[in-house]
C-alpha cells in the first residue's frame, strides 16, 4: 500500500511509524513543509486516554513519554520531604551517589541527553524539559535552572499547572523564557548580588527591584518596560548605592583619616545629598547616577584609608546602570566570578 502522510507533527509521524511497523512492505511517505530538524508544534501534552493508547501500540514509546513525568514527580516528593525521603525515586539504584538536590530529574536528563540536544554539536545548546502538572502537585514551584557539571552545560526545567497559572499568564512559554534567562546568567531583579535567595532583614528593600517589569521578575503586571519600570529600577539602585556607601562609612568610623580621605568623603556627602534631593523630587534616574558617584567616592576613600573593598551588589548595580546609559562599567565595579 502507498500511504502519504501530510504533516510531520507528532500525530503524523506516529501514524507513519505504526503503519510501517504493521507492514514493512507499505510505502509510507511523510510530507512536511518545515525544514528538517524543525520542532514547531511539538509542545504537546497527552491526556491519560492518549497515553493509554500509546501504551497499547508502542510500550517503549510510552515509557519514554512518561519517564520524565515520573522523574519530576519523584523529585517533587523528595523536595517536599526536605530532601530526606527517597522512597519514591524511580532510579533507586543510583542513590546515594547521584542524590543531588535535583535527584531523578538530573539522572533523567543525563540518560536522554542525546535525544534532547545535539550533544556532538559545537553550538551552545541547553536541554529544556517542560511538564504540565495538576495544581496541587506544583503549587509553589514554577521552574528552575540547573548547571550539571557532568553534562558540561546548564539545563532548564519549566513546570506549569493545568488551569490556575494559565489565567495569570504563567504557561510553559513564560516559565521557560524566565528559567532560560538564568542559564544566560540573568538574576531576579530582587536577588541580593553575591548572596542570592529571597530578600530579608537588612536586604528586604531589594524587593523594590522586582517592581520593574521583566521576564526575570516575580512581580508581573505587564510585559513592557516603560517609565514606571525604569523609575523602579533607579530607586532600587539608589538604595543599593547609598546603603552600601553607609556600610563603607561604618568601617571607617573611629579611625584617624587623612585630609585626602576627608576631602573624598566631603565630595561623596555632596553627591549623596543631591541624590536624596533628586529622589524626593522623583527624578530617579538622576538620583541613581548621583548615588553611584557618592558610593565610588566613598569606596576610593575607604581604599585610601585601607578599610574596605567594593561589594558584590554595588558591582551588579553598576552593571545595570551602565547598560541603561550605554556606557562601560567602571573597572572597579565589574563583578567577578558571576
Task: Give a nutshell description of this structure.
The chain has 338 residues and is mostly helical. The protein has 11 helices and 5 strands; from the N terminus they run E-H-E-H-H-H-H-E-E-E-H-H-H-H-H-H.
Order of helices and strands: EHEHHHHEEEHHHHHH
Estimate what percentage of residues fall within beta strands: 5-15%
**Can you tell me the number of structural domains?**
3
Query: What are the low-pLDDT stretches, counting only 5+ consecutive residues below 50?
Result: 321-338
Percentage of residues assigned to helices: 40-55%
Distance between the termini: 60 Å
Shape: elongated
Widest sheet: strand ordering: 3-5-4
Global Rg: 27 Å
Mean pLDDT: 76
> What's the total count of β strands?
5
The biggest sheet, with number of strands, parallel, antiparallel or mixed sense and barrel status, is: 3 strands, mixed
Number of helices: 11
What structural class is derived from the secondary structure elements?
A: mainly alpha
Protein architecture, described:
By secondary structure, the chain is mainly alpha-helical. It folds into three domains: 2-31, no CATH class; 48-183, no CATH class; 201-333, no CATH class. Helix content is 47%, strand content 9%. It is built from eleven helices and five strands; from the N terminus they run βαβααααβββαααααα. The chain has helices spanning 10-22, 48-57, 59-80, 103-111, 113-116, 164-167, 172-183, 227-252, 259-280, 284-305, 312-325, and strands spanning 2-6, 27-31, 128-133, 143-148, 153-161. A three-stranded mixed sheet has the order 3-5-4, with helices on both faces. A hairpin with a 4-residue loop joins strand 4 and strand 5. Helix 3 (59-80) runs antiparallel to helix 4 (103-111) and helix 8 runs antiparallel to helix 11. It is elongated and about 95 Å long. The termini are far apart.
